[in-house]
Each structure stands twice: as C-alpha cells, then as structure tokens.
Design goal:
Order of helices and strands: HHEHHEEHHH
Number of strands: 3
CATH superfamily: Winged helix-like DNA-binding domain superfamily/Winged helix DNA-binding domain
Distance between the termini: 48 Å
Helix content: 40-55%
Number of domains: 1
Radius of gyration: 15 Å
Number of helices: 7
Largest sheet: 3 strands, antiparallel
Length: 137
C-alpha cells in the first residue's frame, strides 16, 4: 500500500467512541451489551474501518469498540453468560461525546466522513438525535 493511501486513511477523524455513543443513545441511554453494539455499528457504519485502517475491517472495528468501551464507558460486573456485562457512558465523557456526535450532522466538520461510512446516510439525523433505534422499556 502506498504512503499516499496510508495518509488518507489516517485523516479520518471519526472515532469508535462516537459510534458506540450513538448506539447507546439510540437504545435509550440504558446500559447495553457488546452483543448489541457490534451488530448496530457494523450494520449502520459498515465502512468505518475502511476510513481508518487497511487491516481486517471487522476485527479492527470490534477492537476499536472494545477500546472505546474501556476508556469512555462503565461496565457492569458480569458473573454469568445469562447476565452479560452491560455498558453505559461515563458521565465525565457525556458532553464531549455529544459534541462530537453533533459534528456529524449536516454542516458539521465530520459530516462528510460520517456519510461516507454509513449504510443509510438518510438515517444520520435520527441516529445522532437518538430517535432511530428501538428503545428498551
């Protein structure tokens, strides 16, 4: 791979923590499982890894999600498979993540990059405002 392509990939400013935050927000801001995060992010943002790396896209995306969870989310303690660990945004990062998410909207500095990685760009506004996904009750 040429240095030019590598530099282009590194210019992508979208972060996995913003995608994880949008997932969490669309599930009502309630603690969610990794089993929910992975398919939601991979389904809505299938080209995320392509803007960040030349490695295996699914592996890269999942590693990025796990790193984001460790740094920006708090997990519940899980002792059994029947009660898996659930994640919620750390309150210290809530405002920052919301500001980053707002940059993805039309007119924002991350808008073009977000549209480029999305399966359905027409859902962007609803995903950012947290009104697209089914909410847990």
């Amino acid at each position: 791979m040429s240095a030019m392509v590598s530099k282009q990939k590194n210019r992508c400013k979208l972060s996995a923590q913003v995608l994880a935050y949008l997932t969490w927000k669309n599930f009502g801001g309630q603690p969610i499982e990794v089993a929910v995060l992975y398919p939601f992010i991979e389904g809505h943002f299938p080209r995320y890894a392509n803007c960040r790396t030349t490695y295996d896209p699914i592996d890269f995306t999942r590693k990025s999600i796990r790193t984001s969870l460790t740094n920006y989310f708090e997990g519940t303690i899980s002792e059994t498979r029947e009660n898996p660990q659930r994640w919620t945004v750390k309150s210290a990062y809530m405002q920052n993540l919301e500001e980053e998410a707002q940059k993805c909207l039309p007119g924002g500095v991350l808008h073009a990059q977000m549209v480029a990685i999305m399966a359905r760009p027409d859902l962007l506004v609803r995903l950012v405002d947290g009104t697209w996904a089914l909410r847990r009750r």
